[in-house]
């Protein structure tokens, strides 16, 4: 599977002068702007996060899918709006086809669902973690390649799926070791109900665009934009804001919403859904402090049609939502006549990792095998190999240093890599059958019989 | 993180006629030629394989890295030979840069290592699983997008790293549930030694190219090609073949090799390395039937300089090597003056999955949560939600059907999805506090107290 690499030099030994000449021809190793390498600590953390997420998704019956990185251009273009089109990596492939790299996992899922739903059946619950590409402006600290991790339930309009979506987010963030967070929920029908009452339906998009900035610019500027950009009257703008600014317990807010939206059939339906959603979430054991009704949440413009939500970390509200989504009427109408209503969310993998790092909740030590075995007695290579293999068969993760260097140099390496324990077996130890197990954090050492070593290490590493 | 999707229709209800009109404008959902979707069973199997591989890599102290899918074109072009260049997906990005999609994980690792080795230190042991792209001819049943999973130890010339590479492959294939396989090993220096003795050094590449076809075309055609394409004499060709065709136990072959290569210094060194490698592998507990010296293995042309190996499944030799690699003198000479010798291998993820499927060793049931809870009593939604949440908190994976349909339809769904157990709680059961746990494979049912349910299910699912 591995390609032969065409070497620049021939295979005869290279004299120093030639090596210098070659140095002049080196290609400068570098990544593209907006792209990045993951060194082991970052790659380990991301692996851990994604496998944690998978385990939670699976515990609710979600199953994985994958789709190609490249799609026919007509599948992708025009689906994410003008900005996505502009940011898309697109080209003509070697076979002359117009292709694009996926910029999210939603459009590929819509295409996938239209193609395979007959075979899959409904309801269908899938998760999908994958890389997406957007040629964004990198000045905002954004990357052009990043990972998403979506999960959706399609083929059902049941609120149970909405409630489960909240449960999944809740259990997932908790499984990441964070407990101070809040999923803010709303229902687009409640906003629609208000717009109907205020006769603002035609300017709904512009009003919502303004409302989405509430956290950033505050109520006065939002009201001003509603007037200037959406053509709302001062009174209409204030009414929208008074709804968006409702605060209190979920019960209080629900009660206050009634008179504001119940005149509209859509508004009343939205309110009933919200009530039922919150009741179901409570029944599933989600504490009220972590699921809060927030009428200012709108999430995008034209896509969501019912429940919407976003997830804010109590200790880091400024980084924005780490998991957002909502209910939609029809996932795949661009590709199929079959109606596929659903609800889902997208986990912001990189954003959550950045938050965990900032909060010091990433365990860097998890990035290597816990046990280090220095190669101490040069004549005993095979004894070390046998010992390490035995420890691995006992379920332990063990790194054996490949060269019989000085112990100090090897322990320095172990320290740099972050190992917890070193098993030191030298000439004397091989003869006596007793080795020394050194705790690399504290520097303390224990003497342990080689025969009992696996058990001792399992105990010490909690494996 | 989720984009608003620009919908084709407005948000008002769509009358049937308009739906028909819309249908005329649907975009045909399809994947690109040579690309494929992964439906849940295939995606689950791949996830399982990659996490199995990671666990084995980690148990030897390998750590993960990742690199971008896109690289500056000059990093990639000309590195994998003319065929790779032709097959590469390359284009001009929106910022006017010439870029290419990675076609393997070796070149990106070479670039990565040159950039970061100062920070990483040596020896450095990494694994990397990722997607690569090659615009290959799809007629041979090959895909243009596939996954690789490489692991390498760089910065050391110690044979310990070569031995460990064999151990990793061995433990990995075993962890996949296969025990009838063989890692075939050789050392390029042994072949070089023979070429020196036969004065064939200058035609080495062409001779090896011919030799690589031994399995496919047989010794006569290989000898003919050595003569016609490599300019070897009939006698030289027969001498090379007599070495390549050596058979017997590792000990017998080693012994027979001596007189053939020991006159050459390189040949003698290669033989000593092979001897030491096999001895170390035995010390690490690898059975001889799974590590066989095979002097016909050459693996590519110019890249490998010492140990080479490939892995063949006893039950499916025809699919070719599922894990191949070897030792090289210098990983990153194209990008840096620092010499980075190393040894590594690439796991053919898709090939191994295809083999496991053909051998019936993939557990399709692993693709969903084991426990299904039908939504039976429509008035008790919240009780079901509470019960399922409780079971999940007890560590069980549970899917709750989102709609209160007829039980038959729900069990049909469960059957199709491959659940093992259904927990049936209807009106009567909620009242009596006793539910029914149905084994979906056998059709048998047990009555279980709701209070004991978690424990009963843990027992039945072995969780």
Structure, described:
The structure is a homodimer of 463-residue chains. Chain A is α+β, with helices and mostly antiparallel strands and 463 residues long. The first copy, chain A, is built from 18 helices and 16 strands. The first copy, chain A, has an eight-stranded mixed β-sheet with strand order 1-5-6-11-10-9-7-8. The first copy, chain A, has a five-stranded mixed β-sheet with strand order 13-12-14-15-16. Chain A has a three-stranded antiparallel β-sheet with strand order 2-4-3. In chain A, helix 15 links the parallel strand 12 (371-373) and strand 13. Chains A and B meet through helix 1, helix 2, strand 1, strand 2 and helix 4 of A and helix 1, helix 2, strand 1, strand 2 and helix 4 of B.
């Amino acid at each position: 599977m591995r390609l032969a690499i065409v070497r620049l030099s021939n295979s005869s030994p290279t004299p120093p002068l030639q090596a210098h000449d070659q140095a002049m021809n080196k290609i400068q190793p570098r990544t593209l702007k907006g792209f990045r390498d993951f060194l082991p600590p970052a790659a380990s953390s991301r692996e851990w996060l994604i496998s944690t997420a998978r385990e939670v998704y699976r515990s609710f019956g979600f199953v994985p899918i994958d789709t190609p990185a490249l799609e026919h251009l007509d599948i992708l273009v025009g689906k994410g709006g003008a900005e996505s089109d502009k940011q898309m990596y697109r080209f003509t492939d070697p076979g002359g086809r117009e292709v694009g790299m996926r910029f999210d996992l939603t459009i590929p899922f819509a295409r996938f669902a239209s193609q395979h739903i007959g075979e899959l059946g409904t309801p269908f619950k899938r998760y999908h973690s994958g890389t997406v590409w957007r040629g964004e402006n990198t000045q905002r600290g954004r990357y052009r390649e990043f990972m998403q991790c979506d999960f959706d339930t399609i083929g059902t309009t049941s609120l149970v799926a909405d409630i489960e979506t909240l449960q999944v987010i809740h259990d997932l963030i908790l499984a990441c070791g964070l407990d101070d967070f809040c999923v803010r929920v709303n229902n687009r029908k409640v906003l629609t109900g208000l717009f109907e009452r205020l006769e603002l339906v035609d300017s709904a998009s512009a009003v919502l665009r303004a409302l989405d900035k509430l956290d950033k610019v505050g109520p006065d500027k939002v009201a001003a934009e509603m007037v200037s950009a959406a053509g709302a009257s001062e009174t209409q703008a204030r009414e929208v804001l008074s709804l968006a600014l409702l605060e209190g317990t979920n019960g209080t807010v629900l009660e206050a919403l009634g008179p504001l939206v119940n005149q509209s059939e859509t508004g009343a339906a939205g309110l009933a859904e919200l009530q039922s959603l919150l009741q179901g979430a409570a029944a599933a054991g989600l504490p009220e402090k972590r699921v809060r009704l927030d009428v200012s949440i709108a999430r995008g413009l034209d896509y969501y049609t019912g429940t919407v939500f976003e997830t804010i970390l109590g200790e880091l509200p400024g980084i924005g939502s780490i998991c957002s989504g909502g209910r939609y009427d029809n996932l795949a109408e661009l590709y199929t006549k079959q109606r596929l209503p659903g609800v889902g969310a997208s986990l912001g993998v990189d954003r959550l990792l950045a938050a965990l790092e900032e909060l010091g909740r990433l365990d860097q030590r998890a990035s290597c095998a816990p046990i280090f075995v220095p190669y101490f007695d040069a004549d005993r290579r095979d004894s070390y190999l046998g010992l390490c293999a035995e420890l691995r068969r006992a379920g332990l993760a063990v790194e054996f240093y490949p060269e019989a260097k000085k112990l100090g140099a090897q322990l320095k390496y172990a320290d740099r890599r972050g190992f917890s324990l070193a098993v030191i077996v030298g000439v004397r130890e091989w003869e006596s059958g007793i080795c020394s197990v050194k705790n690399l954090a504290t520097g303390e050492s224990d003497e342990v019989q080689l025969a009992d070593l696996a058990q001792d290490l399992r105990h010490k590493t909690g494996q």
